[in-house]
């Protein structure tokens, strides 16, 4: 089904697979299945056509959406359930300052405040951010455009990966336990 949709999209725009320079996909954090399906499709196409893959963090994509709206450092937020959020801190130029991690909101605030002491104000951002951080900058939940632009820049700058090297980054541990009912 996904490949049929991709073929239809390419047809609508008059593009053939040999014209594609590289492939992109979100590599997390996000839903396990969604991240796996998207990344696997991109890796499979890249492998089949001898191209590179540019995996893009959903947190980086959120920061890119917020970047034009502030001059501050950016702390994108994604609700990962169980009372935790995934977060990272980026400079306004989208340089990674604190690597993606998962924690309860007070711990995220503590880490971001530590970065703010050294580098200036931090703005929390993302579609989920206002639920956890009052006054946060709410951005669109639709990340595909930002992921495509970031991946295009990564590929152009030579930061594409061999498909075998691209992997998911869920930031938090899997929620595995005994079944709750049969």
Secondary structure elements and their pairing?
Elements: H1 2-12, E1 22-26, H2 32-49, E2 52-56, H3 58-66, E3 73-81, E4 84-90, E5 96-103, H4 105-119, E6 122-125, H5 129-132, H6 144-156
Helix pairs in contact: 3-6
Number of beta-strand segments = 6
Mean pLDDT: 92
Strand proportion, as a percent range, falls in 15-25%
Order of helices and strands: HEHEHEEEHEHH
Helix content: 25-40%
What does the model show?
The structure is a single chain. The protein is of the alpha/beta class. 38% of the residues lie in helices and 21% in strands. It has helices spanning 2-12, 32-49, 58-66, 105-119, 129-132, 144-156; strands at residues 22-26, 52-56, 73-81, 84-90, 96-103, 122-125. It starts with a helix and ends in a 26-residue tail after the last helix.
Quickly describe the structure.
With 182 residues, this protein is an alpha/beta fold. Helix content is 38%, strand content 21%.
Tags for this model:
21% strand, two-stranded parallel sheet, 4-stranded mixed beta sheet, 38% helix, 6 helices, 182 residues, alpha/beta
């Amino acid at each position: 089904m996904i490949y049929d949709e991709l073929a239809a999209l390419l047809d609508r725009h008059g593009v053939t697979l040999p014209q594609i320079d590289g492939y992109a996909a979100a590599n997390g954090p996000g839903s396990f299945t969604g991240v796996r399906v998207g990344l696997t499709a991109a890796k499979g196409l890249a492998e089949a056509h001898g191209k590179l893959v540019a995996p893009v963090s959903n947190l980086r994509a959120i920061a890119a959406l917020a970047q034009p709206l502030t001059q501050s450092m950016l702390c994108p937020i994604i609700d990962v359930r169980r009372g935790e959020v995934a977060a990272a801190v980026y400079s306004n130029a989208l340089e990674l300052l604190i690597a993606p991690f998962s924690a309860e909101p007070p711990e995220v605030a503590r880490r971001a405040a530590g970065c703010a002491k050294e580098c200036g104000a931090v703005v929390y951002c993302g579609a989920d951010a206002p639920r956890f951080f009052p006054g946060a900058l709410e951005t669109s939940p639709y990340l595909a455009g930002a992921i495509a632009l970031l991946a295009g820049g990564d590929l152009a700058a030579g930061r594409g990966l061999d498909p075998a090297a691209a992997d998911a980054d869920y930031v938090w541990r899997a929620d595995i336990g005994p079944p709750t009912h049969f």
